[in-house]
Amino acid sequence: MKSILKARGLKKYYGKGDTMVKALDGIDLEIEHGTFTAIIGTSGSGKSTLLNMLGGLDTPTEGSIKIGNTELAELKGEQATIFRRKQIGFIFQNYNLIPVLTVWENIVFPISLDGRQTDREFIMHVVNLLGLKSKLDSLPGNLSGGQQQRVAIARALASKPSIILADEPTGNLDSKTSDDVIGLLRMTSKEFHQTIVMITHNPEIAQMADRIVRIEDGRIILPAESY
User: Fold this and answer.
1) What is the C-alpha end-to-end distance of the chain, expressed in Å?
2) Which CATH architecture has domain 3-226?
3) Which among 89, 9, 8, 50 has a CA at the least distance from the CA of 213?
4) Pick from 152, 151, 165: which is nearest to 87 by CA?
5) How far apart are CA 164 and CA 123, in angstroms?
6) Gap between the Cα atoms of 225 and 227, Å rounded
7) How far apart are CA 73 and CA 182, in angstroms?
8) Which SS3 state, helix, strand or coil, does residue 18 take?
9) Which H or E run includes 125?
């Protein structure tokens, strides 16, 4: 299977000398197209730093990241912003929905920023799959946490990105809703052959992914496992 993401020799150091913190200390990671990967680690292990690097939200001290045929380090300023918007979908723990926009407007907002045409048929397929059809005119404040996270998933899928990065997507949800959301992520990965990388501290949630990568003290400590 073809790789969609390759990270080589990733390091992220803060400070100097005795106070230096090695948030990432030499990460090599390859993600295959259409797979659902969970990166698991305790608080402070470096998993959030790694996700930020993979998404181009932060730059490594050393190393390289390639998404498709594009080296992230070669993108500057507005070019990097546009690439992220088109090629990387983000799902955040706090949903990051715009409160004054309806569900539909939130879903298509990133696409509208680029002046691209909305693939309404595709987005409605996503909406129906996620059970959001009756909520399209609602504001985020009128939705449950689980429904808001479904909107965030739909928004991430809508622009047909190369990869979706999910940052503790169930962190604010109860256990049943968490299971539902992870189940939906897994289902959308299979339905749309969408590549998803999710970080979590929860081993039970990680078990639902195709592959687990364990990180500790800024290093991958075990080979990725399949379940």
Assistant:
1) 17
2) 3-Layer(aba) Sandwich (3.40)
3) 50
4) 165
5) 16
6) 7
7) 31
8) helix
9) helix 120-129
Q: What pLDDT score does 224 carry?
A: 46
Distance CA 164, CA 192 (A): 12
What is the radius of gyration, based on Cα positions, of the chain?
Answer: 17
Question: Beta strands of the chain (E only): which ranges?
Answer: 3-14, 21-32, 36-40, 62-67, 70-71, 88-91, 163-167, 196-200, 211-216, 219-226
Place of tokens 């622009």: 159
Tell me phi and psi for residue 97, to 5 degrees.
Answer: -85, 155
Q: Position 213: which residue type?
A: V
pTM for the model stands at 0.91
The pLDDT tens digits of the residues spanning 159-212 come to 999 999 999 999 889 888 999 999 999 998 999 999 999 999 999 999 999 999
pLDDT beyond 50 at 227: no
